[in-house]
Design a protein that fits this description.
Blueprint (H helix, E strand, L loop, with lengths): L7 E4 L5 H12 L3 E6 L2 H13 L4 E5 L5 H15 L4 E4 L15 H28 L3 E6 L15 H21 L4 E8 L8 H13 L10 H11 L10 E4 L8
Parallel strand pairs: 1-2, 1-4, 2-3, 4-5, 5-6, 6-7
Helix pairs in contact: 1-7, 3-4, 4-5
The structure holds NADP nicotinamide-adenine-dinucleotide phosphate.
NADP nicotinamide-adenine-dinucleotide phosphate binds next to helix 1.
Length: 253
C-alpha cells in the first residue's frame, strides 16, 4: 500500500514539466489523480502516458485563472472520484523577460492573476470539499527565485515577487485552515529542467551552475517526492513551511 492510497488529488498545470512528474509520483504512491492544464491535447497526451504505466488518473482542461474552469476541475474530480483530499497548485506564468523597471502593468496583472490570485481562489474553492473529508493537505509550487530574484537578463522581478507572495500565502492560509485539519506547505524549486526554464538555461545556465553546490540543474522528478511527502501523513506536523529544492542554493528570505 502506498502512502497516499485512498486519497484523491488535484494537480494543476500537470500535462508536462514539474506538474506531470508530481502527478505521476502521487499516483505511484496510491492516489487517484486529476491532471489538468489549458490545452486538451496536452492533457490527453499526459493521460495516455500515465495510463500506459497503469496509474489511476483522469484529466480535464483547466486554465487556473478562469473561475468556470476551476469549477469544472473540482466538479469532475468529485464526480469521478467522490471527493478531494489533496491539492497541488503548480500553475504559473512569466510572460516578460528583462529588467524589472521595463515591466508593464499588463504583465503584472497577468503574473499576479495566474500565480497568486488563482492559487488563493482555487484553495478557497476546494476547502469545503476537504472539510467534508475531515481534512486535507495542499502544496503550492513557489520558486527559489521568491527568495533570490534571478537578476540576469532573462527573468523579471515581477515573477520573483509573485513567488515571494506565495510563501506568505501558505503561512497565512495555513493558520486559518489548521482548525479544519488542512495543512498547507510550499516547495521552492531552484533550476529544474523543463520547457519553462529553457531560455534561462540556454543563456545563463553556466553562470547559475557555478553558484550551485550540486553543480547541475534538477530533474522534475526531484520535486515530486518531496511534494508526495508533504501531502502525506508522514508530514502530519508540518504546515505553513517552504522546502527548498535547489541543489544547495541558499533559500531563506
Ligand atoms: N522549471 C523551473 O526551473 C522552475 C523553478 C522554480 C519554480 N518553478 C515553478 O514550477 C511550476 C511548473 O513549472 P514548469 O517548469 O514545470 O513549467 P512547464 O514545463 O512550462 O509546464 C507548464 C505546465 O503548465 C501548464 N500551464 C501553463 N499555464 C497554465 C495555466 N494558466 N493554467 C493551467 N495550466 C497551465 C502547461 O500546459 P498547457 O500549456 O496545456 O496549459 C504545462 O502543463 C511553476 O509554478 C513554476 O513557476 C519552475
Amino acid at each position: 500500500m502506498g502512502k497516499l492510497t485512498g486519497k484523491v488529488a488535484i494537480v494543476t498545470a500537470s500535462s508536462y514539466g514539474i506538474g506531470l512528474s508530481i502527478a505521476e509520483r502521487l499516483a505511484e504512491d496510491g492516489a487517484k489523480v486529476m491532471i489538468s492544464s489549458r490545452k486538451q491535447q496536452n492533457v490527453d497526451k499526459a493521460l495516455q502516458t500515465l495510463k500506459n504505466k497503469g496509474l489511476t488518473v483522469s484529466g480535464v482542461v483547466c486554465h487556473v485563472a478562469k473561475k468556470e474552469h476551476r469549477q469544472k476541475l473540482i466538479e469532475q474530480t468529485v464526480n469521478e472520484y467522490g471527493g478531494i483530499d489533496l491539492l497541488v497548485s503548480n500553475a504559473a506564468v512569466n510572460p516578460i523577460f528583462g529588467p524589472m523597471l521595463n515591466s508593464t502593468e499588463d504583465a503584472w496583472d497577468k503574473i499576479f492573476e495566474v500565480n497568486v490570485k488563482s492559487t488563493f481562489f482555487l484553495i478557497k474553492e476546494i476547502v469545503p470539499y476537504m472539510e467534508k473529508r475531515g481534512g486535507g493537505s495542499m502544496v503550492i509550487v513557489s520558486s527559489a527565485s521568491g527568495y533570490i530574484p534571478i537578476v540576469g537578463s532573462k527573468f523579471t522581478g515581477a515573477y520573483s515577487t509573485s513567488k515571494t507572495a506565495l510563501f506568505g500565502m501558505a503561512k497565512a492560509v495555513a493558520r486559518q485552515l489548521a482548525r479544519m485539519n488542512i495543512r498547507v506547505n510550499c516547495i521552492a524549486p531552484g533550476l529544474i529542467k523543463t520547457k519553462f526554464s529553457e531560455i534561462l538555461a540556454e543563456h545563463e545556465g553556466e553562470e547559475i551552475i557555478k553558484v550551485m553546490p550540486l553543480k547541475r540543474f534538477g530533474e522534475p522528478s526531484e520535486c515530486a517526492g518531496i511534494v508526495s511527502f508533504l501531502l502525506s501523513a508522514d508530514a502530519s506536523y508540518i504546515t505553513g513551511e517552504t522546502v527548498g529544492v535547489t541543489g544547495g542554493i541558499s533559500s531563506r528570505l
